[in-house]
Amino acid sequence: MSGLLFPPLKIGNLLLDAPLIQAPLSGYSDAPMRRLARKFGASFALCEVFLDQFVLSVSKRSKSRLYLDVRESDKPAGAQLMGSSSDEFVSAALKLLECGFELIDLNFACPVKKVVGKSRGGYLVSDPVRAINIAKRVREALPMSIPVTVKLRRGFDDSEGSRESFWELLDGLIDVGINGVAVHGRTVVQRYQGTADWTFLADVKEFVSVKKGRPDVPVVGCGDLFSAETVIKRMRESGVDGVALARGIIGNPWLFKQTREAMEGRPISPPPTLAEQKEVIATHFRDAVELYGERRATTVMRKFGVAYSKLHPDSEKVRMAFVLCKTAERWFEILDEFY
């Protein structure tokens, strides 16, 4: 039975059996990773962030179309968009619906310097008027059956003006009809330094549910969620409706299983054995080969191999083996040798 400690998560007309989401991860959350996340307990998975101009440039014959791959078995699936032009946001969102995505998430949070410098991602936290207009245009353009959500950080920086801009932005986003908001407890300037402020997440939840009177607009928290125990603690102390796991699940899809167990009041499984790790890494690689082809998959999977190696008792040797891996044959030799 799911939802023993926490209720299911409702985003628009999308009902998820557990408040446990895989966050969009740039360079990582492609179709094979999303399928693993769902297999291990994520109720919903978002693809890596897409630049609106990239989506609009992809043709049916382009190799890049692989990034937009959605199967019926993958659904429900969500896509995250990033850009600066409301017109391009709208056009890209409509194209993603054609690809089979069933939720559109707007990225107003990315802290990468080159992104912010082009008035994209986290920059928009500092420009609430533009950000609210983008959200309004996208919400009006899409069918009401398609949820539109927004990813934010708790401000651009720690200044009072930045804090005021955040609340102005959140207030406006709710007024134009967004169906949910995910908030990372760091500022854009912080990037991934310091710690995520979950007391701020509690303030966001209170603002949405009490001040705005919109408990139907879920607040999803993210930031520094690396264990099932931490997830439960953060949800209880902040009152958020759900969590989005990000960096903690790269190379560790078992965290979804452990977190769902904790959410359902069941004993948390121990870390995976080497045999269990081998099976999952092999499955992940084969899925990547099916999507990208053998040569490209080997390149794409190296960073995943490095992440998986962190769970191995001889992590440094395994990491170097994956870093140097250039063929599918060598990939499976590494698994036989170390796992």
Quickly list its features:
two-stranded antiparallel ribbon; 13 helices; 339 residues; alpha/beta; 8-stranded parallel barrel; 2 domains; TIM Barrel; Non-ribosomal Peptide Synthetase Peptidyl Carrier Protein, Chain A; single chain
Structure overview:
This protein has 339 residues and is an alpha/beta fold. The chain has two domains: 9-263, Aldolase class I (TIM Barrel, Alpha-Beta Barrel); 274-338, Non-ribosomal Peptide Synthetase Peptidyl Carrier Protein, Chain A, CATH 1.10.1200. It contains 13 helices and eleven strands. Strands 3-4-6-7-8-9-10-11 form an eight-stranded parallel β-barrel, surrounded by seven helices. The protein has a two-stranded antiparallel ribbon with strand order 1-2. Helix 8 crosses helix 9 (254-263). The mean pLDDT is 94.
